[in-house]
Amino acid sequence: APLYAVVPAAGVGKRMGADRPKQYLLLNDRTILSHTLSVLLSHPRIHQVIVALGPEDGYFDSLEEASHPRLIRVDGGRERSDSVRLALAAIEDKAAWALVHDAARPCLHHDDIDRLLAFPGDQGAILASPVRDTMKRAGADGTIDHTVPREALWHALTPQLFPAEALHQALVRGEQAGAVITDEASAMEREGWHPALVAGRPDNIKITHPDDLRLAQLYLASREA
Ligand code: C5P
């Protein structure tokens, strides 16, 4: 089945406190989004990359990847899940699979994509990392209510891999039900799916705060060296 990459890139990145959406900040010589798109466009299994952009986006056209023949752009939506749903709607092939990856994770490595594509089972899969710290559930007053056993806890990363049509339906139904959907797997879980957890590389960080940008710079520079 053909594999499409879907990249939600329609956020504003408020927590970054920058003068532009964070995906357009420079990371070494190129923008964050440019790094992300080039990793996906250069993977041999990925047929096309669909990027969801903000309606007011004034930066995308100046990216080197903007005119790539295997890149499709669509308008994103209000929430991340809206942006993903709108990008999935551009896929006509009902047998396609979608690999959804945050624009804000520019350090993605082909290794991670390959490991995800080899996932066990038939319920889709996500990259994830085991929780390292001791986890606390806070009570209403901000003190510790209890300790949550961390053995079974994972951080959900991207990419996340699902049949495109099933994911699209799951997102539509999740939104109709008013569910809070912060990743693709959560929409599928609501439908009774049990996606596989595939351990990802620790350098596939999401850039949220200015400190993350410095860390990503180090990761990318050490790779080029
Ligand atoms: O803000 P956060 O880092 O959680 O966003 C994750 C990804 O979702 C980012 O790549 C962002 O551009 C994207 N997004 C989107 N549409 C929105 C909100 C966020 O495509 N409405």
From TrEMBL:
Q: Name one GO molecular function term.
A: 2-C-methyl-D-erythritol 4-phosphate cytidylyltransferase activity
Listed A to Z, the keywords are: Isoprene biosynthesis, Nucleotidyltransferase, Transferase
- Enzyme Commission designation: 2.7.7.60
Q: What does this protein do?
A: Catalyzes the formation of 4-diphosphocytidyl-2-C-methyl-D-erythritol from CTP and 2-C-methyl-D-erythritol 4-phosphate (MEP).
SUPFAM superfamilies under this entry? Answer: Nucleotide-diphospho-sugar transferases
Q: In which pathway does it act?
A: Isoprenoid biosynthesis; isopentenyl diphosphate biosynthesis via DXP pathway; isopentenyl diphosphate from 1-deoxy-D-xylulose 5-phosphate: step 2/6
The cross-references to InterPro entries, in alphabetical order and at most eight, read: IspD, IspD/TarI, IspD/TarI_cytidylyltransf_bact, Nucleotide-diphossugar_trans
Query: What name appears for this protein in its UniProt entry?
Result: 2-C-methyl-D-erythritol 4-phosphate cytidylyltransferase
Q: What protein family is recorded? A: Belongs to the IspD/TarI cytidylyltransferase family. IspD subfamily.
Q: What class of enzyme is it?
A: transferase
Catalytic activity reads: 2-C-methyl-D-erythritol 4-phosphate + CTP + H(+) = 4-CDP-2-C-methyl-D-erythritol + diphosphate
Please tell me the species this chain comes from: Ferrimonas balearica (strain DSM 9799 / CCM 4581 / KCTC 23876 / PAT)
